[in-house]
Every structure is written in C-alpha cells, then in structure tokens.
Amino acid sequence: MIIISPEPIEELSVRAQVDDPRSGAVVTFSGVVRELSLGKKVQKLFYEAHETMAESKLKSIVDTAMQKWQLNKIAVQHRTGLLEVGDVAVVIAVAAPHRKEAFQACQYIIDKIKEDVPIWKKEFYDEGGRWISTPEENNE
C-alpha cells in the first residue's frame, strides 16, 4: 500500500495493512511535525508533491526493499498539504519474519523518501517561511 494524500494519517490503519501470519516482526515509523527546526519555532508545515512521480518513486523504493531483505509486506502513507505541530506527516510499516530485516528496511525506506521522492516541505516560522530543499536539512 502506497498512499500520498492530504487526508490525516491513521497510524493504526497503516499498521493494519501489513498484518501477515508469516511475520514475527512489524516495525513502524511515524514522522511527526516537531515544533523546533533549524533552531526556529515551527508554526506549521506545508508538503507539496508531484503525486504521480512520487508514487512511482515510492513503489520503486518499496520494490527494492522487498528484493533486498526478506520481507512480507510494506505500507507507506505520506501526507501533503498544511500540517500543524504534532500532526503525522508520514507512516511506514514493514512486516518481516524477523526484526533485523524489518528495522533495516524501514530505515532504508525513510532515508530514500528524504533523498529521492519528489515531496517538498515548506516550514513556516513566526518570521516567515522557508522551503527545505536538501536531505541534510530534512534530517536536522
């Protein structure tokens, strides 16, 4: 399951998409809008995506993870539009027979999203806004 949408993300719903009796581990990652970034107080974020390209790139990332590790299922949902501090921006759920592969795949997926997927983030502060343009800025 890969979804890019302005709708709020239901974390448990994403997690439920990877339920599989073959899995002994499910690792989830939830990216949440934090109040401080680059030393500034964040008021809100705006995510914009080229949805067709972003979905295609996400599918490629998921396919690569499935080939690289022994996994059963992966679900990814990324939000677009205006988000407030505390809102969930992205959820990744990875189900695998064992935890090591699930953790490694989840880390790989979020890193590749930050590096390669055409989803752009603008942060708004008291003194204005700024587009975050590099993976290093996204990892701050």
From TrEMBL:
It comes from the Bacteria. Gene3D superfamilies: Molybdopterin biosynthesis MoaE subunit. GO terms for biological process: Mo-molybdopterin cofactor biosynthetic process. SUPFAM superfamilies: Molybdopterin synthase subunit MoaE. PANTHER family: MOLYBDOPTERIN SYNTHASE RELATED (PTHR23404). This is Molybdenum cofactor biosynthesis protein MoaE. It comes from Candidatus Schekmanbacteria bacterium RBG_13_48_7. The lineage of its organism: Bacteria, Candidatus Schekmaniibacteriota.
